[in-house]
TrEMBL record:
Alphabetic keyword roster: Kinase, Transferase
Signal peptide: none
Lineage of producing organism: Bacteria, Bacillati, Actinomycetota, Actinomycetes, Streptosporangiales
Protein name per the record: Ser/Thr protein kinase RdoA (MazF antagonist)
Keyword set includes Transport: no
Residue ranges annotated for the Aminoglycoside phosphotransferase domain, each copy included: 21-232
Family annotation (InterPro entries): Aminoglycoside_PTrfase (IPR002575), Kinase-like_dom_sf (IPR011009)
Top-level lineage group: Bacteria
UniProt-recorded Gene Ontology molecular function terms: kinase activity
Length: 317
């Protein structure tokens, strides 16, 4: 379908648009209008909530006040962030240029995540089940590709527990290398805030340590320690203290596997989405973490050096 209606919805002069990329949940377009560039995200499945988007924008704005960089959320002419037509929801952001092949370092990601958690923004919304519930154990036997991994999947699923609502704060919830972009001036820009919502900071830290420092079955202990030290300097919170800290990361991993497996098997789904899902299932299964990896991350995190430089965590504005 044509997306040209977006220009009018966001008060932009007519211009050009081209696809800049895609992920599991949406496609990113570059819009050029009136001498400026914008990023528009087209969500494959509707259902986003305006109130949740406003909380996400508040988290982004507070994090920027504390020193992070992130694209600006741009409203429609009616003051909403979400625009919708014919069942398609979109959002618009300022465009940010990046330098390919310049990943964030261990200390940098610790500083970014620590600054995000220093916002300490509370929310009345509960943690979404995507982050603290998983499918029944029998589900994995229904996925043909998962058959060789059933035992490990069951072991991982046993780690998932409902999040403590008293510990939940607004979190980014999608902290990965592709969402920290190196700007031309060398700084980092935090991208893809669309998942932001209630989460437990300790669990987001544990998941980030695993994503950054666990590759091909090996854990970079020095990297873990550097990230934790920078994180504590930024927000003062303690490192993860037990296997339960990986509950959210495991829930996301298994729920993503479940969702992509269902999509891959859906003969009525668009071919583009099915192809993406088939590749995603194979990728997740090939990179399943082990309990040993969790333990090694925890051991390294406990050895971090240096006292925290507390930024006065308190309920955010």
């Amino acid at each position: 379908m044509s997306m040209a209606w977006v220009f009018a919805e966001y008060g932009l002069a007519d211009g050009t648009m081209s696809v800049a990329g895609r992920g599991a949940m949406g496609r990113v377009w570059r819009l050029d209008s009136g001498g400026r560039s914008y990023a528009m995200k087209e969500f494959f499945w509707a259902g986003l909530d305006e109130r949740a988007v406003h909380e996400e924008a508040a988290l982004r704005d507070r994090a920027v006040e504390l020193g992070l960089r992130a694209p600006l959320n741009l409203p429609t002419t009616s003051g909403r962030y979400l625009a919708e037509r014919d069942g398609v929801q979109v959002r618009l952001y300022s465009w940010a240029d990046g330098v390919p092949g310049s990943p964030a370092g261990a200390e940098e990601v610790g500083t970014v995540l620590g600054t995000l958690h220093a916002t300490a923004l509370a929310t009345e919304r509960p943690v979404d089940p995507w982050y603290d519930r998983v499918a029944a154990p029998g589900r994995w036997s229904e996925i043909p590709e998962a058959a060789p991994y059933e035992e490990r999947l069951a072991e991982l699923a046993a780690l998932v527990r409902p999040a403590d609502p008293g510990r939940a704060r607004l979190c980014h919830l999608d902290m990965k290398q592709s969402n920290l972009m190196r700007a031309p001036d060398g700084g980092l820009v935090v991208l893809d805030w669309d998942n932001a919502g209630p989460g437990v900071p300790e669990q987001e830290l544990a998941g980030t340590l695993l994503r950054w420092h666990h590759h091909d079955g090996e854990v970079d202990g020095g990297g873990v320690k550097a990230t934790v030290a920078a994180y504590r300097r930024a927000c003062g919170l303690e490192p993860p203290g037990g296997l339960g800290a990986f509950s959210m990361e495991v829930a996301v991993l298994l729920n993503y596997l479940d969702a992509q497996a269902r999509l891959a098997a859906d003969e009525g789904a668009e071919p583009e989405h099915r192809r993406f899902a088939v590749d995603a299932v194979a990728d997740v299964l090939a990179k399943l973490p082990t309990m040993e990896a969790f333990e090694r991350v925890l051991d390294a995190a406990a050895q971090h050096a240096g006292p925290p430089l507390r930024r006065g965590l308190r309920p955010g504005r």
